[in-house]
Model the fold of this input.
Amino acid sequence: MKIVHIVGARPNFMKIAPVMEAFARAGDVEQVLVHTGQHYDEELSKYFFEDLGLPRPDVDLGVGSGSHGVQTGRVMIALEPVLERERPDWVFTVGDVNSTVAAALVAAKLGIRVAHVEAGLRSGDWTMPEEINRVVTDRLSDALFTTEPSANENLLREGVPGERIHFVGNVMIDTLEGHREAAAALGVAEGMGLRPGAYLLVTLHRPSNVDAPERLGALLTALGEVAVGTELPVVIPLHPRTSARVRELGLESLLEPLVVLPPLRYLEFLGLMQDAAGVITDSGGIQEETTVLGVPCVTVRPNTERPVTITHGTNRLYDGDPHGLLDVVREALLAESELSRPPLWDGHAAGRIAEIVVRGA
Ligand code: UD1
Done:
């Protein structure tokens, strides 16, 4: 059996790593790794490959940044000849970035079976580019691997035949479990002079939070208020998209109360996250990782496609006036956490995927 795996952006790398390992263990499977080049910064891309032990990509499409149409189109144009040449039995896509939907479109039109890992998540928010990517990718997929029960319900409601849907758990948690110790051993917090359990960690990069000048300004101001109000250092590794907006809008002074870092490597970020008192984020994956780590998480969004992080985890949504963020963070830090892991988030999701695909081939 031959599989072509597609990755493009940072959150894809930690999802594909355990899947490739599981297929390598499963035996007679030829695997080809294609990096679209959507993320090309070393911090966003190369160091992730090193930290995760991912093989070097066999093919790098080098598409880079651009508008959604340009980026998606470039991936499609560059990927088509690769898939025509490789003619795999399956194209594996993960997550919800532009590279995911572009790859699914090309493969489906070539008559190659598409597998989607992390299928079925729905925010119901059509203004989110990722929501469009999820719905279209799932419609084009022959095997849909889901992380939580809500995803199965969403897919069945949309008319996806039940036999295509496989509830396997969360491959990103496989990666987390495999790297927790190595991340802790780095002692990142101590190395930065931070006391474990006595700082807050923030990530912000969604267009809805960082592209509108008033929204970004209000959120950064609110983070300054959180730093003062909680008396905890607020650490923020800045995504390139966010730092570009801060520069363009001249908002640098709002970063002064915060501890600003460049984007971190996977292990560094995991180390900081597991020792944080709490996390404030608009990321999808971090809602899931904090759930398993038992770290309180405030997600600055009106909705989540990952409701299990609220029902079974440490996540809460906040989309009110940014000035209210301090109170919500205080509440989150004080909340009694009754940790119960979402079902099948046990570190063995990728093994289940490989078994289903190899058995059904
Ligand atoms: C992408 C994904 C998002 C994911 C995020 C994780 C889509 C629609 N969005 O958003 O779902 O949560 O990755 O990081 O696919 N840039 C660099 N260097 C890079 C890559 C990007 O400087 O290596 C800058 C460029 O200014 C670029 C901007 O970041 O225009 C946005 O990059 P892009 O890949 O379009 O989307 P992300 O915001 O990273």
